[in-house]
Fold this protein.
Amino acid sequence: MVDLGINIGNLQLKNPVMTASGTFGYGTEFSDFFDISALGGIIIKGTTLHHREGNPYPRMAETPAGMLNAVGLQNKGVEYFITSIYPSLKTIDTHVLVNVSGSTIEEYVQAAEKINDLDKIPAIELNISCPNVKKGGMGFGTSCASAAEVVKAVRKVYTKSIMVKLSPNVTNIAEIAQAVEAEGADSVSLINTLLGMAVDAEKQKPVLSTITGGLSGPCVKPIALRMVWQVAKAVNIPIVGLGGIMNATDAIEFMLVGASAVQIGTANFIDPTVSLKIVNGIEAYLQKHNYSSVKDIIGLIK
Amino acid sequence: MKKYILDCVVVANIPLNKRYFLLRVSHPSPFPRMLPGQFVELRVDNSSDVLLRRPISIHDMNYETNEMDLLVQIVGAGTLKMSELKKGDLLNMIAPLGNSFSMPTIDMKHVLLVGGGVGVAPLLLLGRVLQQYSCKVSFLLGARTASDLVQLDSFSQYGEVYLTTEDATVGEKGFVTNHSLLKNKVFDKIYTCGPTPMMKAISAYAKTNNIECEVSLENTMACGFGVCLCCVTDTTEGHKCVCTEGPVFNLTTLKW
């Protein structure tokens, strides 16, 4: 029997597989496909203090081994989440995290404060890395000072676990990770999408309404692995790795370079049951290599 | 409606012209009920070259033989690979997806189904289902040229078929919106699927004549089941996902 349990700060996961924000809805969309309680946790889509319509269509472009999105945090706001979505999440027998974003520090603080009161939500993922919003989002995650400022402010009002989602669109991601660790982040998740662009040569126009968007999918995995490896050497808090994970082998690679857990994103669009397959695949790998615990493979590559 | 992930088997792949083909698939167990206007998401292959699934309208269903027909146009790498599928190949599908065309009310005597290009695809299953209703069904189908008007024998089983081509190789010359049928007959409801300019023109006609109209949109999607929020269209109630709250929209809800 292999122990798949893992701790992310004070958050105990039954296994290291979570689903990435913005790729898993509110989880309930997947209930036709499998029992999502089998996952280590789910991270529901980006929630902001106020309702956001998101960006105009077109918001998506398929690219070689990946895709660009420019959704722009479309959501109905934190109050709607609390009254209309949260009650239906209470029956899910795994951790449900809310991804929190904002245009100003005050918006992050107010949204986090409201979510702090929800018993079923043991942690938030603080999104300081969304590339698709004009104000805030990635703007906070690309300098040490502003990343630290957001975490510091939210830390004052949010008493449970804070996972900070880092942007890869920086020169030195390890420094940003250290800055948020110093302000009390319990863990970091990385990477959010890479800023990219797609062009329609026939129309001589950008494909996306916003011109640029966030790149995800298998094409970003080498960059994500490199960044997790760099951050693992720089911080003491747990790391949740994501970026182009399509199968259990990909997930194991992230754990080998230092991630304590992983998130599955774009792959959910292609195979809605992939995250469950990855849980089973990690277990099979550990058995094959005679490990008794998933903790034994974390950071084997120094 | 419950969604299923199905490993289908290709029964036939029939080229209809240089760009269109009819893909007939089956499944070891009976297909769930599929409604007209719904679509499927196909995993074309397991490579990263065609990473995302491809949303394809359900063209026809035969529950007796347990076969589904998909009418596909080659527009890119994904549909090109689909055109190369052979009898016996496996094709992974998520289905059924999306809402459906709403059925006519009892007072409706004559409904019109307007399709352009590959947008004619969902209108065949709609025509089949409309047989159960007492209203008369007419199809108005348009394409660039005669060879792009496909499946005409199938459509004619369910109603009168009127045609337009831009080059006058068959039917009336021009676009569907110029067809004399629209001037000479009165319709109680219009269903349309095809290129956006065509659907907008038909919608304008429906508005002017105060005819109820449903349009089926074909926005680019990543997931097909309401989680990526990429395929939105602007409605009177804000952005809505074409994959879950569409693909069929009543004209009154669209900002057209």
Observations:
- Chain B touches chain A at residues 2-5, 43, 48-49, 51-53, 94, 219-234, 238-239 (CB under 8 Å).
